[in-house]
Specification:
This protein is an alpha+beta fold. Helix content is 25%, strand content 36%. The chain starts with a helix and ends in a 5-residue tail after the last strand. The structure holds 2-oxoglutaric acid. 2-oxoglutaric acid binds next to strand 7, strand 13 and strand 14.
Length: 218
Amino acid sequence: MNPAWHDAYVFFKHEEQATEPRFGRWSRAYFESGVMAQEPAGLLYQPDFISAAQERLLVAEIERLTFSEVRMHGITAKRRVAHFGWIYGFESWKITPGAPIPEFIASLRAQVATLADLAPESFAAVLVAEYPPGAGIGWHHDAPSFGESVVGVSLLSSCRLRFERGKGEQRETYELALEPRSVYVLSDTARHTWRHSIPAAKQRRYSITFRTLKHPTT
Ligand SMILES: O=C(O)CCC(=O)C(=O)O
C-alpha cells in the first residue's frame, strides 16, 4: 500500500472504533482508492419505504427523545443515540436490557419485519441515531452481539452508505445513496464481510436501526 494511504488506513482503523469521519477529502480519497465492486450480496435497498406523512410523525416523536452520547476510547462522536429494547455498550461491546420500544416505532417495526420476513418481536433492539451536520459513522461491521439482519430507515436527509472489504490492492468498495424515507437491509456478506461507514453529511439526518439478537432471550 502507498505509505500515504497506509497512514490514512491506520487513521480510519482507529476511527472505526472511535468516532465518525472528520476529514472529508481524506475520507473520500481513501474510499475512492478501492476498486468499485458489484452490490454486496445481502444488501437490499428500497426507496420510499415510508410516506412523507409517516416521516413527519416519526421526526416529531424523535425530537422529543432524550439522546445519549456515543463515547469510545475517550472520544465523543458527533452523532447521538437513543437505545430501545437493548442497549449496546460502545466500549464493552455487550448488550444489556433497555427501555421498552416506544409505541411510535411499533408500526414501523411491523413494516420492517414484513420486509425482512421475520416476526416484529424478532427486532428486539432499536437504535435511533441523530446525525447533526458534520456527523457520520466510521468504518465498522455491525456488532456481533446482534443477529443476521440489520435494517435501517433514514429520515430527513440523504447520505452515502459506503462499503469496503479486503485490503491493499484487493480492497473493494461500493457506495449507495440513502434517500430519506428509504430502508436498507444488511445481511449475509453485506453484514458480515463488508465494513460500512457514512461520511459526514451537510444536513441533519435521523436513522432508526432495527436489530435482532444473536442469542434471543425468549
Ligand atoms: O445511520 C445508519 O443508517 C447506519 C447506522 C450504523 O451503521 C450503526 O448504527 O452501526
